[in-house]
Amino acid sequence: MEFVPGLDLCRRFHDDVVGPIVRGRFPDLRYAAGRLDTGSELLGLDTPRSIDHDWGPRLQVFLAPSDGHLAHRVERAVADDLPAAFLGFPTRFAGHPDTGLGVLSRTGDRHGVRAGVLGDWLAESLGFDPRLGVGTEDWLAVPTQRLAEFTGGAVFHDDLGEAGPTRARAALGWYPDDVWRYVLAAQWTRIAQEEHLVGRCAEVGDDLGSMVLAARVARDLMRLFLLLERRYPPYGKWLGSEFGRLPGAPEVGDALSGAVRAATWRERERQLCRALTLAAVRTNERGLAAAQDPAVSRFHRRPFLVLHADRFASALRDAITDPALRDRPPVGAVDQFVDSTDVTASAARARRVAAAVLPD
C-alpha cells in the first residue's frame, strides 16, 4: 500500500467514513472532529517508518457537554459500520492499549476513533481549557511539544462554533509578547550558564566534557532559533527536523554541526561563537528588547571567547511590561527546566512542577 501522510489519511477517513457514520446515526448532533492528540503526523514529520505503531486512520470526535452521554454510542456506531480497510490501511488496531493504540491489524480489537466532551479532553491534555482564556501560568505549564502538536494538528469538522476546538487552537497560536520575552530570556539564560564551560573543560583535559557541553549549547540554540521564529520547539526526536525548516537554518546548522564535530576545543569554540553571533543578530532583529552588541569577547580574564549571553537575557527581561512576570525566576516554561518525558507527557505533572518553582 502506498504511504499517505497521516493528517491527510485521517482527514479523508473522517470525510469519507466517520463523518457519514456520525451524521447518519445522529442527524441532529453537533460535533467537531480532528487530530489534536499526539504523533509525528501532527507536525507533518511522519514517514513510512511511522506505520509500525500508533499510526493510521484515527481521529477524535468532540461533543458539547450536553451531548457527552452520547460518546460511547458514537464510538459504538463507528465500530459497527467501519469498513475493514481504508485506502489500503486496516481501520483497526491490535497490541497493548495501555501504551497507545498499537499496530494496524485487520483482526484488531479496537478502532482509532475516540469520542468525548471537548472540555474534558482539553483539561486532561493541556491542563486547562484555552477557550476560557489563557493565563501566564497556563502558557508556562504546557510543554512546547504539546503546544506544537495541538496547534500543528488539524480540525476536520467543527460545528460547535465558539465552543469548538478551532477557537481553542486559535487561543494558543503563539505566546503574548511579554510571555515570549520571558521564554526567550530563559533560553538565553541557559546558554549564558554554559557557553564558557566548553573551553574550561578542555583546558583541564576533559575533552569529552567539552564536547558534551558544546552539544548542550547547540541544542539550546536550536530551541532558541525556533522560539525566535514563533515555532514551538518539539521534543528531541523532531527538534532537528523542525529546526531544519527555519529560514537561515543551513548557515546556523553548519556552525552548530561544526561545533559538535570539532576535533579541537578551539574549533569547537569558534563554531559556537559563530552560531551565537547569528542568534544575537536574530534576537536584535526581532525588536522585542534593546539591541545588544552581537560580538563575542573574552570571558573575564580567561582565554575563552563567549557572547556573554546574559546581556540578551537581561535586555529581554527589562522589556517585560508585567512586573510579576519580569520578577519571576528565570526558569522559563516547564520544558526549559524539566527534561523528563514522564513529567512533560503528563499535563497534571507538568503543571505541578511548573508551580513548584514559583516564589511562595
Characterise the protein shown here.
The protein contains 16 helices and ten strands. A six-stranded mixed sheet has the order 6-5-7-2-1-8, sandwiched between helices. The protein folds into two domains: 7-135 and 152-171, no CATH class; 177-328. The chain is of the alpha+beta class and 360 residues long. Helix 1 (6-25) crosses helix 2 (71-81). Helix content is 50%, strand content 10%.
Percent in strands: 5-15%
Radius of gyration: 23 Å
Distance between the termini: 57 Å
User: Averaging pLDDT over every residue, what do you get?
Assistant: 95
* SSE pattern, N- to C-terminal: HEEHEEEEEHHHEHHHHHHHEEHHHH
Uncertain residue ranges: none
Helix content: 40-55%
Give the beta-strand count: 10
Task: Quickly describe the structure.
The protein has 360 residues and is an alpha+beta fold. Helices cover 50% and strands 10% of the residues.
What key phrases describe this protein's structure?
360 residues; six-stranded mixed beta sheet; two-stranded antiparallel sheet; 16 helices
